[in-house]
């Protein structure tokens, strides 16, 4: 539970409720810092294992203004506490985690009753949180951790599959469409009480992790055709608060390269490429003849050594969950 601090009576309190994934918590923290700079008091609510990660991303100057509130999920035999996060969660347990999170509703209600925040900012993946907040007469707004382009494209595909997305530069290949349709099919199976809280068709406010400088036309499309009041809160760029030796090695290496000469390859913190896919990426990088940084991840506990015929990959034995691969070393066979 959040620690007690003395605060002015005029301080506005905001409870932030991100989805249980690092890629969602980081954008929430970015918004939390901006609000804290404007003298808001922030309660960040998540599971202990996620808060352990979040605490390392909060600079000391926010120690009092951003408070961590523990979210304890119901105990399920197949979901021990170290799996109360999507990070390193086995794929077959994702549904179980979602189930446990929905079972948390009564506890969220108690947290709201105790903290009495003036506003709840919830993750778009947790629509039910708005109903819980409304039961306490607390206004709630959603935060989208991805950008307007992806959101608008998939929203049209899900809700108006017959409509043509008006921006032809954004499209999926046939193989990608098959995977998307499978994803959308799962999305349609969401329980009824997880739907959007559209009150008499009124326009919904949505905070979005983007900027008009980057996505102006897509933001306008969301506003005009999806009946949303979009408030851009800036892209989810993290502040650097560490001086890790590995990070500095990477920065020093980048400093030796020409501008716009290096490709960053990453498929997210929860997507694990197959051996065949990794080989294809490696061959593509080799043929492109560019400098690159490749972030490779494997499920926790699956220590592997990749053996691919690529002359420009700097490879370490993957005893950790994540390694940075760069073409620091040339002509290395493995």
Task: Write up this protein.
With 334 residues, this protein is of the alpha/beta class. The protein has two domains: 13-232, Glycogen Phosphorylase B (Rossmann fold); 245-326, no CATH class. Helices cover 35% and strands 16% of the residues. The protein contains ten helices and ten strands. The protein has helices at 22-37, 48-55, 94-102, 105-115, 128-135, 148-159, 174-187, 212-225, 245-255, 275-288, and strands at residues 13-17, 41-46, 66-70, 119-123, 140-144, 204-208, 228-232, 262-265, 291-297, 322-326. Strands 3-2-1-4-5-6-7 form a seven-stranded parallel sheet. It has a three-stranded mixed sheet with strand order 8-9-10, with no helix packed on it. Helix 5 (128-135) links the parallel strand 4 (119-123) and strand 5. Helix 4 (105-115) crosses helix 5. The longest helix has 16 residues, at 22-37. The protein is globular, with a radius of gyration of 22 Å. It starts with 12 loop residues before the first strand and ends in an 8-residue tail after the last strand. Residues 197-201, 303-324 and 327-334 have low confidence and may be disordered.
Query: What is the terminal-to-terminal distance?
Result: 50 Å
CATH-derived topology of the largest domain? Rossmann fold
- Within CATH, the superfamily of the largest domain carries the name Glycogen Phosphorylase B
Structural class: alpha/beta
Question: What oligomeric state do these chains adopt?
Answer: single chain
The rough form would be described as globular
The helical percent reads 25-40%
Strand content: 15-25%
**Count of DSSP H/I helices:** 10
* CATH architectural group of the largest domain: 3-Layer(aba) Sandwich
How many domain units?
A: 2
Low-pLDDT stretches: 197-201, 303-324, 327-334
Main beta sheet: strand number and arrangement? 7 strands, parallel
Spatial arrangement of strands, main beta sheet: 3-2-1-4-5-6-7
Please write the string of helix (H) and strand (E) elements: EHEHEHHEHEHHEHEHEHEE
User: Radius of gyration over alpha carbons?
Assistant: 22 Å
Report the count of strand segments: 10
CATH classification, class level of the largest domain = Alpha Beta
């Amino acid at each position: 539970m959040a620690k007690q601090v003395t605060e002015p009576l005029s301080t506005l309190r905001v409870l932030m409720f991100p989805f249980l994934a690092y890629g969602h918590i980081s954008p929430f923290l970015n918004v939390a810092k901006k609000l804290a700079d404007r003298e808001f008091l922030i309660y960040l609510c998540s599971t202990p294992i996620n808060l352990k990660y979040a605490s390392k991303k909060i600079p000391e100057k926010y120690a009092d203004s951003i408070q961590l509130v523990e979210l304890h999920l119901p105990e399920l035999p197949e979901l021990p506490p170290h799996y109360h996060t999507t990070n390193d969660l086995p794929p077959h347990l994702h549904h179980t985690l979602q189930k446990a999170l929905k079972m948390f509703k009564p506890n969220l209600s108690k947290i709201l009753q105790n903290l009495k925040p003036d506003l709840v900012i919830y993750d778009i993946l947790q629509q039910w949180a708005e109903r819980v907040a409304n039961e306490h007469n607390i206004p709630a707004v959603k935060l989208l951790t991805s950008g307007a382009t992806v959101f608008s494209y998939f929203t049209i595909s899900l809700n108006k599959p017959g409509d043509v997305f008006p921006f032809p530069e954004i499209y999926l290949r046939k193989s990608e469409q098959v995977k998307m349709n499978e994803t959308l099919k799962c999305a349609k199976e969401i329980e009824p009480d997880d739907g959007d809280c559209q009150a008499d068709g009124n326009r919904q406010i949505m905070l979005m992790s983007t900027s008009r400088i980057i996505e102006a036309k897509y933001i306008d499309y969301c506003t005009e055709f999806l009946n949303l009041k979009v408030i851009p809160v800036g892209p989810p760029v993290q502040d650097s608060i560490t001086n890790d030796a590995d990070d500095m090695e990477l920065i020093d290496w980048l400093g030796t390269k020409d501008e716009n000469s290096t490709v960053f390859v990453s498929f997210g913190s929860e997507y694990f490429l197959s051996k065949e896919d990794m080989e294809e990426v490696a061959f593509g990088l080799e043929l492109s003849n560019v400098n690159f940084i490749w972030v490779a991840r494997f499920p926790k506990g699956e220590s592997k050594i990749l053996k691919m015929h690529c002359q420009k990959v700097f490879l370490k034995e993957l005893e950790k969950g994540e390694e940075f691969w760069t073409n620091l070393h040339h002509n290395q066979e493995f």
